Give the backbone structure.
Amino acid sequence: MNEAVVAAAGSGKTDMLVNRARMRPESNILILTYTNENLGQIDERLWGLPGGYPDNVTTMTLYSFLLSECVRPLQVVKTGTPNFIRSIQTERRPDHARYKGVADFHGYFLDNSRDVYSDYLSQAAAEINKASEGDVIRRIALIWDEIYIDEAQDLNGYDLELLDLLLKCPELELLLVCDPRQAVYTANAQSKHKKYRGSGFVTWIDERPYIEKSNKTSCHRSVQEICDVADSLYPDLPATQSRKSPGSRTHVGVYLVHENDIDAYRNRYLPQDLRWNRSNKKAGPKAKNMRKVKGLSFDDVLLHPTLPMSNFLEKGTKLEETSLAALYVAITRARFSVGIVTKKRSSNTAFPFWVPEDKAVQSTKSVGVLF
């Protein structure tokens, strides 16, 4: 039976994949994920298992899988030459290529160096599978018994078409592990199935009776105060229950930090600064981009929001899906506290202001705009 697990941040998604693979030594298992960073985390956990890296497990990034297992092996049915396609072109496809149509495989999917445009890898794979009468999927089923897809919410466009073919293959079992709140990437920029991006991926799952869905709502990373704030960004998804004790910590929860107090806050709590990108100089030289910290944990975080994020928190204005996901990722990296940098001295949010000890203690009154 195909399964999908909708898992909250900090619920142990990677451990779940690794432990399941360890318990099935009789199956040939492929684990896929989107980024090299996530692949490294999975490989590290696999190497840490008793007995080392299991012989029955293979790991790949999604792009590597699409190129090496879906496009290149049977490319001859579309290219006429077995080794015509070389690699992946990550730059944007020229606009004029779309007028050629999929019937012109070379002109539509490939650049002049015979590389496949990354945004069209899944579609190219689907075309080759169609032309080979399903041999792409049959070949995969001969190699692996089970496929686990980590960060499945990053799939979109023709990725979902190919995923559907894999799900319907009776010789394969698929496990999709996703957190639609962490959809900070999209595997391709095509507009097909746009409604299923981000939080819409759960709808895509629900529409398929051949997927058994479950929720994983326990968080082992963050204290409940942080979980509650993160949950409020996605009120339609199941609430998260923290299994993290604050212990003897007294600085716990989410606070506003005035930009003039950043240095004092850093000196007091040594937080990890998180920003949108490196153009934010106040975040400091050791800051990390909030979209690139999935899977990481820090005791304390100092978040430098973009203006749209600040407006969302302050006024409840609509926030673009990728930015909302990045905000969720940033908040849920913290175990004990999140400081949110602001230029204002008062706020409409329910978050208290943090101020240095040598200043008068201040807090803001909640007016219920968002939290």
Confidence is low (pLDDT under 50) at residues 361-371. The radius of gyration is 23 Å. Residues 224-354 form a domain with the Rossmann fold fold (CATH 3.40.50.300). The first helix runs from residue 13 to 22.
